[in-house]
Amino acid sequence: MATEVELQTILKTPMKDFSSDEGDNEFHVNYRGRRYEISGFLKHHPGGRQVLNAFRGLSLDRALDRVPHSPAAFHLFQDFQLSNKTAYEDIENLINWNAPLLSQVASLKDRYWEWVNLPVNRPIRLFKSNILEMLTVTPWYLVPLVWIPICIYFLCLGVSIEISSPTVSSICKILLAFSWGFLLWTFLEYTLHRKLFHMKPPPDSKILISLHFLLHGLHHKAPFDDRRLVFPPLPAIFLAFILYNLYEMIFPVFMLNIVASGTMTGTEVILLKFLKTRFGLLNEE
């Protein structure tokens, strides 16, 4: 991220001004001799909209030379190019964006890993069926609406079992079990995300490619599709059921439901923090 001094230095360097060619709602920049209209990206920029506001109508050549960006970021940038998008279109035309994606991604084979890690700024559709598609879309408010009552239920269930012992001892055990469950999710989330979701599927396995895209790859391909920022409740409840059964084999009865409540609470805190950050960027002016 460029510092304020670096930005001022870049801005003071003479650059061609394109602002006179813009409409009121357009935001044009120039890079390497090509023109980009990035009004649709401003609210998503990780550094905040105010960083880009300073470059309206200007060339980004020196700015992007001074501030390193990943190949994925430059690929995403091509989504806003007004012409000469040959390299960008070559890979994005590997699939039909007007048709459901889940049935197509497996056919990419050895091109899948390259394709899925080059993000685009567009919504995606997974299924032809409207019912199945609806189950993959998660408005942000469903997260607290579904999971907070479940967390409270399991906590009350666990407390009702433990409260039979002396009060001070019970409170200590409840807090310890809840904290253990909360912290356990941090380890589980890291393991699932880094070790499982980021595993490269074999190019000859259509099932594993489709499964990777469904579970996590779609977030890499369309990171700004705000309908898919979190795991949908229905499959999440199924995974929670599996995890609960594993907990039954590990924890004693008096700890089981409190640890489960702590784990689900940890999940929701992380998700809500993520949503606050993302929606903060989305709503930033």
UniProtKB/TrEMBL annotation:
Domain of life of the organism encoding this protein: Eukaryota
Keyword Signal: no
Record domain Cytochrome b5 heme-binding: where: 16-86
Protein name in the entry: FA2H_2 protein
Family to which the UniProt record says this protein belongs: Belongs to the cytochrome b5 family.
Chief subcellular location: endoplasmic reticulum
InterPro entries with a match to the protein in the record: Cyt_B5-like_heme/steroid-bd, Cyt_B5-like_heme/steroid_sf, Cyt_B5_heme-BS, Scs7
GO process annotations (BP): fatty acid metabolic process
A single cellular component GO annotation: endoplasmic reticulum membrane
Membrane topology: Multi-pass membrane protein
Transmembrane segments: 140-161, 167-188, 229-247, 253-275
Keywords from the UniProt entry: Endoplasmic reticulum, Heme, Iron, Lipid metabolism, Membrane, Metal-binding, Oxidoreductase, Transmembrane, Transmembrane helix
Pfam family, one: Cyt-b5
Keyword presence, Kinase: no
Lineage of source species: Eukaryota, Metazoa, Ecdysozoa, Arthropoda, Hexapoda
GO molecular function: fatty acid 2-hydroxylase activity; heme binding; metal ion binding
Compartment annotation: Endoplasmic reticulum membrane
